[in-house]
Amino acid sequence: MIATAGGAGYSPVAPGTAGSLVTLIALWVIPFTFATLIVALAIVTVAGIWAAERVEHLLDTKDPGVIVIDEVAGMLLSVLALPRTIPVLLAAFVLFRIFDVWKPFPARQAQELHGGVGVMLDDLVAGGYALLLVTVGRALLSVPS
């Protein structure tokens, strides 16, 4: 249940996008503060490393598609220091998905790491890139907080 983000990883089409979408909805609905979002990210990351490692072992496959807890962590990071308005959430979602698929340096290299750390780290890199771009975009557009 943890690795699949409550079953989102079993989506027959684009399970990574499904996991990201579930997180997007949660970020909109749940009134996270900055502190609770940091705690949620830490818990999801630690639990995700453990769960991803376990599922990889059980399925005897490197980063199987059913594991989407990494997308949850990446999406949480993508809005960590930002107001969770609809434009911010949508921009973070699109950018996160682009970076997660593209895997720019060092995401691709991180994915090659062994076990749950490799599964989680590439999506955290993608989430960090999305956070950076949305933050810079808001600053360039002089969008108030």
Poorly predicted runs: none
- Quick one: how many beta strands? 0
Q: Give the biggest sheet.
A: none
Rounded to the nearest angstrom, the distance between the terminal CA atoms is: 35 Å
Helix content: 55-70%
Average pLDDT level: 95
SSE succession: HHHHHH
Shape: globular
Radius of gyration (CA) equals: 14 Å
Number of helices: 6
Strand content: under 5%
Number of domains: 1
Explain what the structure shows.
The protein is mainly α. It has one domain (8-140). It is built from six helices and no strands. The mean pLDDT is 95.
Structure described in brief:
The protein has 145 residues and is mainly α. The protein contains six helices and no strands.
Spell out the blueprint of helices and strands.
Layout (H helix, E strand, L loop, with lengths): L14 H15 L4 H26 L9 H10 L7 H17 L4 H5 L3 H26 L5
Helix pairs in contact: 1-3, 1-4, 2-3, 2-6, 3-4, 3-6, 4-6
Structural descriptors:
single chain; 145 residues; mainly alpha; 0% strand; globular
